[in-house]
Amino acid sequence: MENPIDRLTLLFEHFPGIGPRQARRFVQYLLSQNASVRSELAESVKALGSHTALCKHCYRYFLKTSAKSERCSICSNPSRDAGLLFVIEKDADIQNVERGGFKGLYFVLGGTIPLAQEHPEKYVRLRELLKRVESEGKAHTLREIILGLSATTEGDHTRMLIQERLLALSQEHSFQISALGRGLSTGSELEYADPETISQALGNRH
Model confidence over 122-135: pLDDT tens digits? Predict the structure, then answer.
């Protein structure tokens, strides 16, 4: 029989930013708790699959209100500014951007593009982004696309590549392409920026 301690430790090691030592500490913590805590955690993990879905418009995860739900609460909200599209790396960035006061819509890339890669579509939802932008461009709903990527080497590389791919569409459909301005320090990720910093970066976008 496989050792459940080792198995769970290996699973935790797959989490972003978690190494073997931290993973082992998580397991030791769970072992020290009573059975009800472990049971609640297990049920919550199961619920992620049965009660959530991936929005077919922005690609963020959301709580399903019905079996037919295809769009999240942000994408289906008519009061949001459909002319502003904020392109971000990951789902976790949205919460901070919302706190910064953004009232437009989102598109989740699903990551960044590593340097010197010939097929960026393997790493991010580039095809899906271009398809959405072309559709909304033809409908004349887009005014501006904001590239809200992290101030890291891969974030900058991804932003420049996406700008190149969007340039022809922006000229054809008359929308602007901007990037977050001063406010985010070099090397920082959007997920960890405070709301005031994000608000400044949005206000200073260029």
Answer: 889 999 999 999 99
Q: How many beta carbons lie within 10 A of that of residue 104, not counting itself?
A: 18
| Element of type H or E holding 45 | helix 35-51
User: The domain spanning residue 44 has which CATH number?
Assistant: 1.10.8.420
Q: How far is CA 103 from the centre of its chain?
A: 16
Q: Does residue 142 contact residue 133 with C-beta atoms inside 8 Å?
A: yes
Q: Strand 104-108 and strand 81-88: pairing?
A: parallel
Average pLDDT of the residues in 60-80: 87
CA dihedral (28, 32, 34, 40) positive or negative? negative
Q: Which residues pair with 63 in a beta bridge?
A: 52
What total of structural domains would you count in the chain? 2
What is the pLDDT confidence band of residue 152, given thresholds at 50, 70 and 90?
confident
Burial of 113 by CB count in 10 Å (0-12 exposed, 13-18 middle, 19+ buried)?
Answer: buried
